[in-house]
Specification:
- The complex is a heterodimer of chains A (202) and B (135).
- The relative contact order of chain A is 0.16.
- Chain A folds into 2 domains: 76 residues, Dna Ligase, domain 1 (2-Layer Sandwich); 118 residues, OB fold (Dihydrolipoamide Acetyltransferase, E2P).
- Chain A contains 1 helix and 14 strands.
- The two termini of chain A are 23 Å apart.
- In chain A, the strands form 3 sheets. In chain A, strands 1, 2, 3, 4 and 5 form a 5-stranded antiparallel β-sheet that branches. Chain A has a 5-stranded mixed beta barrel with strand order 6-7-8-13-12. A 3-stranded antiparallel β-sheet of chain A has the order 9-10-11, with no helix packed on it.
- Chain A is mostly beta strands and 202 residues long.
- Chain B is mainly alpha-helical.
- Chain B is built from 6 helices and 2 strands.
- Chain B is globular and about 50 Å long.
- The chains are: A mainly beta (202), B mainly alpha (135).
- At the A-B interface, strand 1, strand 3 and strand 5 of A face strand 1, strand 2, helix 1, helix 2 and helix 4 of B.
- Strand 1 of chain A pairs antiparallel with strand 2 of chain B, so a sheet runs across the interface.
Chain lengths: 202, 135
């Protein structure tokens, strides 16, 4: 789930940070630059693990700030395809589920990757609400009425999913006003296997 | 920015939790790390990593050495601590079969589950990746 990436970066240390020690100031500047940002094909940067080395800085003529070349290691969140992760159910609609891990919210399980067979049907308790229900047993040819229904409808319940794919959509040039906020990294998950789905099922 | 090594090694959840705790984060104190890092910290607290230490992971790895697991499967087992055979399937592929899965579960359950004391700073920071036997 989490990997280390070594990077080398040349950064300018703003003068107002010169009161701190060099390590603290560089760390703060690196965190401002990389923390909580998605780097394409590398993943989401979660933390600066450590600073490996710092070149002795130089100062450009006319500039009040030193520039350092820093080698550091970043902790990247990048699950591999096939990995199992736990996430909380955030919302669901007829297209599938959306899950969140707290620090990462763009995990989608489209309807075709839900356990087979699943249906989006009205809640028996509250006719206005719809929910996803997995009909365990219907796949084996049992009578639909005898199949035990397993609903997925508790917002916040922990769901175990297998990563089906990760995509890094390109930044859109234009967005309509009410479009969903742009997600630079999207994880697609699947629930269609043994042991997957809400933990409470197993 | 230049990428020197895109994949310098996988990290278990415990190693990252240790690095946050060594910078002073805990359930009560959140200001020593960035808010986005604290969200990751809160995520870990809800997983098995909250009860593990580096030593307990070494013990677990030692016991799983003979089971011929791939690195990714080992990482998955350490992070999730599956206590049911069905969860071992999802982590590790069906090649183990039912008997193999049950055996793994008994090994995992048998390994001591270290309990972190509330204020305990993580064990001294090892070089990352020592847990998985990389240099």
């Amino acid at each position: 789930m989490f990997f280390l990436s070594e990077i080398e970066h040349t950064l300018r240390l703003p003068p107002h940070l010169l009161g701190l020690t060099k390590e603290k100031a560089l760390r703060q500047e690196l965190e401002n630059l990389f923390l909580d940002k998605v780097i394409a094909n590398l993943g989401l940067c979660v933390s600066v693990y450590d600073v490996c080395s710092v070149s002795s800085g130089f100062i450009f003529p006319g500039d009040g700030a030193p520039t350092y070349t820093v080698e550091c290691r970043l902790v990247m969140f990048r699950p591999f395809v096939g990995e199992i992760i736990d996430a909380q159910l955030k919302e669901y609609n007829k297209d599938g589920l959306r899950l969140s891990m707290g620090f990462f919210d763009d995990i989608y399980v489209p309807f075709h990757l839900l356990p087979y067979p699943s249906r989006f049907e009205p809640d028996p308790e509250d006719g206005n609400h719809f929910r996803w229900v997995w009909e365990y047993g219907a796949a084996n040819g049992q009578d639909g009425n005898a199949a035990a229904p397993y609903p997925i409808n508790d917002i916040g319940e922990t769901i175990r999913l297998r990563v089906h794919g990760i995509s890094y959509p390109p930044i859109p040039l234009e967005q309509t006003k009410d479009a969903k906020p742009f997600a630079p990294m999207v994880i697609t998950g699947s629930l269609d296997n043994d042991g997957l789905g809400p933990i409470s099922w197993w | 920015m230049k990428m020197k090594n895109a994949n310098a090694g996988g990290l278990t959840n415990v190693e990252i939790l240790n690095s946050f705790q060594s910078r002073g984060a805990s359930m009560e104190v959140a200001v020593t790390i960035a808010p986005s890092e604290y969200k990751v910290f809160e995520y870990f607290i809800g997983t098995a990593a909250a009860h593990q230490t580096t030593e307990s992971i070494y013990v677990l790895m030692d016991r799983l050495k003979n089971h011929d697991l791939a690195k990714a499967e080992l990482l998955s087992i350490i992070n999730h601590r599956p206590t049911l055979p069905v969860w071992v399937y999802s982590s590790c592929d069906e090649r183990l079969g039912e008997g193999g899965a049950r055996e793994l579960v008994s090994v995992i359950k048998g390994a001591p589950k270290a309990v972190r004391r509330a204020g305990q700073k993580g064990a001294e920071r090892h070089a990352p990746g020592r847990a998985l036997g990389r240099t």
